[in-house]
Amino acid sequence: MKHVHGHLLSHLSETPEQKKVTEEVEVDDDRSWTAESDFPNFHTRGLNTEAAHLLTELPGDEELPPIKHGEPITDRRSTFQPHLAPVVTTRQVKMVLDKLYENKKIASATHNIYAYRIYCEDRQTFLHDCEDDGETAAGGRLLHLLQILDVRNVMVVVSRWYGGILLGPDRFKHINNCARSILVQESYTDSVEEASKAGGRNKKHKNKKAK
């Protein structure tokens, strides 16, 4: 599929002709995408869009957060690989995505699904968002995983290179398993087993654990 640099940050037109769709259905690979914004949507708990936008207007001296890369999973010629970065502002989210897209391999992925969850201490609420990047419902599932694990101030991106064979629901399993694995790797949760059993439990909010 044709990619536009940094298009994960863009609102795509909602018309069927322009909206990127999953590789799990037949699509026209020659479609083009139109960027409408430099920032993702702000879906917040108790925080409206205007207030969320103010959080991006912080001093411009923020540094690019360190980006970690996890082990890939390959199934029927599709490959999934997770990436993780600590973030505390939406500007850092944009910086991380821009940096990832400088990597030609990541930029060429069929889908780059992401979700982030930032805790706003002064408002005692969460700023969060997600992006399917054409893999329908994958971003929401990834964000739900971050919520049930109760992690904060982190974003996870999962790249998928489609191999030509439909995976059905298994693709969501691989996306979430990649995300769990890198959250364990970077000490945001205790173990893959705990992460798998976390659904529905009330747990203490977790930043990255001290090593």
In short:
The chain has 211 residues and is an alpha+beta fold. It has six helices and seven strands; from the N terminus they run βαβββααββαβαα.
Structural account:
There is one protein chain. With 211 residues, this protein is an alpha+beta fold. It has one domain: Impact, N-terminal domain (Ribosomal Protein S5, domain 2, 2-Layer Sandwich), CATH 3.30.230.30. It has helices at 49-56, 90-101, 104-107, 138-149, 170-185, 192-196; strands spanning 43-44, 68-69, 73-75, 78-86, 111-120, 125-131, 154-161. Strands 1, 2, 3, 4, 5, 6 and 7 form a seven-stranded antiparallel sheet that branches. A hairpin with a 2-residue loop joins β3 and β4. The chain is globular, with a radius of gyration of 17 Å. The chain starts with 42 loop residues before the first strand and ends in a 15-residue tail after the last helix. Residues 1-19, 26-58 and 199-205 have low confidence and may be disordered. Residues 76-183 form the Impact N-terminal domain. Pfam families: Impact_N. Residues 1-21 are annotated as: Disordered. One of its GO terms (biological process) is regulation of translational initiation.
